[in-house]
Structures are given as structure tokens and as C-alpha cells.
Amino acid sequence: MAEKTVKILYVHGYLGHGGGNASRLVREALEKRGLDFRLDSPQFDVTDPEAMKKAFSGMAQEYDYVAASSLGALYAMMYAPGFRILVNPALPKDLRRIRDKDPESNAKLTDAFLDWLEGETESFLKDCVDDEELFFTYFVFGDHDTIAGNRALFERKFRADHIRGADMEHRRAPAGAEQVAGILEMLIREKPQYVDTLNAALEGLFRDLEADETPEETR
Predict the structure, then answer these.
(1) 191 Rama sector, left if φ>0, alpha if ψ -120 to 50, beta otherwise
(2) In the chain, which ranges are continuous DSSP H helix?
(3) Which of 12, 62, 140, 215 could cysteine-pair with 179, CB 3.0–4.6 Å?
(4) Could you tell me which residues come within 8 angstroms of residue 7 by beta carbon, excluding any fewer than 6 positions away?
């Protein structure tokens, strides 16, 4: 039986756009690997929290994998189900710095929006990063990112073996796209499955107890 076409959602960042250069580079890197995939890169209003949460609650569930950049990566970290590959996730402090350098050009980065985003991010990183989140989350960081250089923070919170570096700045470059495509290829070919180790241990314990209680003659 032929393998089904893998569906990938790409989420752009602040000032990015659907079908932009970043998603094109990832598509080209995947095509070189001969994978059967469909990559969609729609336009998102990344400064509208309700629109973004609605998009992830609907669209993301239709996809096998999510890849995202910058502010889009921050949303994907918090709201995307399943495997997500996050490239140079931007934090509220990074967006504030962008806004403060040129308030007129970044009017959508309001204090209300950034305060909300800061609260959501702090809450997620403090209370929601469990074993399951660690399993499903991968990162690619630009070695020369001067806009959102947050690798050290995420290394403290997430799995070191799920973090890759790339010879690029904040914007996606071929080196970053190759890393994203490499992670996706591994996930597609190996199909890793999350196992809740605590539940698995409890199930094993219950099976052992049931076996001990089974009469000898019925074994």
C-alpha cells in the first residue's frame, strides 16, 4: 500500500507572509529528499491572538506536522497539536525592541498585544512544558540571529537532542531550510510515537497484579 501524502503547515512570522521565501526554501529542501508531501503556507494575521488561536484549533489539526518561524513559531509552540518544528522563535521582548526602534512602522505591536503575549508565553513555559511537549517540539536556531537570539533559554526548557543550529541570521536561509527538512524527513520515515512512561509503568504494574491474582489452575 502506498504511503499517504504527508501534510505540512508552514506558519510565517511577524512581517512575513504566506507563500514567502521561507516556505519556498523548505519546500525545495523537501523536494530534494523525494518525499511525498503537501506544504501549505497561508497568510496569518499574527498580531491577532484570537485569529491565531482559531487557526490552530482548526487548520493545524488537519496537518501531520507544523513548521513555523519567529512569532509564528511562538504561537505554534503554545497552540499547535502534534509535532512542531520551531525556527528562531521570537519572544515578546524581541518584538518590543523591534517596535521601540520604529513605533510608526510597527503600530500593530501594541502594549496590549505584547502584554498578552508575554503572559501567555510565561504561563506556557512555566506550567505546560511536560514530557509530551518535550517529545513533540523541535527547534532550529540561526547561529547569527541578532533579532531573537533565544537558544540558551529554550535549551534550558526543552530537549537538547531536539535542537539544531544553522548558519543563518533570523530570516530563513537555505541552511535553516535544510535543517527543517532533515527533521521532517526523520519524523516522516521513523514515525516516532509518544509513550507516556508513567501510564505505561502503571499499566504494567496492574497487569502484574492481575496475573498474581489469577488462580494457578487457570494460567
Answers:
(1) left
(2) 21-32, 49-58, 70-79, 92-101, 111-127, 131-136, 151-157, 174-190, 197-213
(3) 140
(4) 37, 38, 40, 62, 63, 64, 65
Residues 22-68 pLDDT 10s: 999 999 999 999 999 999 999 999 999 999 998 888 777 799 999 99
What CA–CA distance (Å, rounded) separates 183 from 136?
12
Q: In this structure, are residues 72 and 9 in contact, taking their beta carbons and an 8 Å threshold?
A: no
- Percent of the chain at pLDDT exceeding 70: 89
Task: Give 48-75 as a DSSP string.
Answer: -HHHHHHHHHHGGGG-SEEEEEHHHHHH
Look at residue 1 and tell me whether its pLDDT is greater than 50: no
What domains appear along the chain, each with residue ranges and CATH number?
A: 6-194 (3.40.50.1820)
Unique residue bearing C-alpha cell 518584538: 95
Measured over the CA atoms of residue 177, residue 153, residue 113 and residue 61, the dihedral's sign is positive
Find all residues with CB under 8 Å of 141, minimum gap 6, and list them.
87, 88, 149, 150, 151, 154, 163, 164, 165, 166
Q: pLDDT tens digits for 97-153?
A: 999 999 999 999 999 999 999 999 999 999 999 999 999 999 999 999 999 999 999
CA 73 – CA 47 distance, rounded (Å)? 13
Whole-number Å distance between alpha carbons of 172 and 180: 10
| Per-residue pLDDT at 164 | 98
